[in-house]
Automatic annotation (TrEMBL):
It comes from Pedobacter kyonggii. This is Gfo/Idh/MocA family oxidoreductase. Pfam families: GFO_IDH_MocA (PF01408), GFO_IDH_MocA_C2 (PF19051). GO terms for molecular function: nucleotide binding; oxidoreductase activity. Residues 175-427 form the Gfo/Idh/MocA-like oxidoreductase bacterial type C-terminal domain. PANTHER family: BCDNA.GH03377 (PTHR43818). InterPro entries: Gfo/Idh/MocA-like_OxRdtase_N, Gfo/Idh/MocA_oxidrdct_glycsds, Gfo/Idh/MocA_OxRdtase_bact_C, NAD(P)-bd_dom_sf, TAT_signal_bac_arc. Residues 51-162 form the Gfo/Idh/MocA-like oxidoreductase N-terminal domain. The keyword Oxidoreductase applies. The lineage of its organism: Bacteria, Pseudomonadati, Bacteroidota, Sphingobacteriia, Sphingobacteriales. Keywords: Oxidoreductase.
Amino acid sequence: MKTKEEPQNEQNTRRDFIKKSAIGLAAFTIVPRYVLGGQGYLAPSDKLTKAVIGVGGMGRGHFDYEGTQVVAICDVDQNHLKQAASMLDKGVKTFSDYRELIQLPEVDIVHIATPPHWHGIMAVDAANAGKDIWCEKPMTHTIGEGKRVVEAVKQHGRMFRLNTWFRFKDTFYGMGTTVKPIKKLVDSGMLGWPLKVTVSKHTGYDWKFYWVGKDHLEPQPVPPELNYNAWLGPAPYKPYNAHRVHQTFRGYWDYDGGGLSDMGQHYIDPIQYFLGKDDTNPISVEVDAPQQHTDAVGIWRRITYTYADGCQIILDGEGKDTNVPYIEGPKGKLYPGFKSDIPDLERKLAQFPDPDPEIVEFSESVRTRKKFALNEENGHRSCNIVNIGLAALRLGRSLKFDPVKQEFVDDEAANRLINPVMRAPFSI
């Protein structure tokens, strides 16, 4: 899919990349070492082995995860690759093509730390290659990609971890507590039902509206260290500009979705959990936002999701409601700092059971073959909420959603965003 504006060196790079793709399609499936050695098998170092794809920032930050050892890394930017390699043992293997990395028989876990437009393809390829998967948020760039990841992980019996952790550990932003007592409070029924959850700067959440794109980018020369065609991958070809890649890619629809895509799963996934909706999604979304540019992500004022039972999630981008509770129900309210209008809340709450325990260390999940707390299924559902909102923003209108079919209702334009056409030769 060449364009007249595309420079000759980009055409040559693309032909090389497509040629490699054909080779990659013929790759055989590799079985991880723990399968060959039986359940509980460990590497000689007594650690699970890990390969990291994308080492420009987030990937480097997860080299030292407890119980794992990095044995391979991959990046399409040679400067990133060199910097990351300098932080690791000399024996670590380096790659510019992730398809070579996932074929390594010594790799147990593939950690995907690329921009989101690559997450789905890489996760499916890793599952097909017999690897367990650790993926950064958002889980996938589209709803359709998420469905394929769920299918591939199930088909090949893989373990999957989505890297947002607030449903099971760490203080949950402005709430002054982990999510566990919030889940316990919701399950107790003391707040009543249905519930409304408001996510805004007044309840402790920053929507990072600095992640916006520029609506006019002048073409620039591609830096010699960057394989820009490989960085684009399945995304449409557009002339290189430094603002499209690396730290500022979040401002462009082709690769991400601004602050909502960056922080959405961090904020929304725990809500899905404590509302008990890990197997479903809202049935509608309403948006209040300026008209979005076709390429560059803009800001928004308010996004309202509604579930079939009347529960709502309000994303307040402009901070309109200054004294709003984080959770509001017909019987009570919960404010930041775990404050409530329910008298003697903590004593009353102590009478109720704690939430069910979960596996919260991925190394345990890999060894026992039991699902991680935030896995491909519930992670896909919370990612859907992000992508439902992004679709409404891009189209500039409210949408109806069918949580069973995972499709928009009577809206052809919205449904085209579920499985957008990928640039050849990529598919999922």
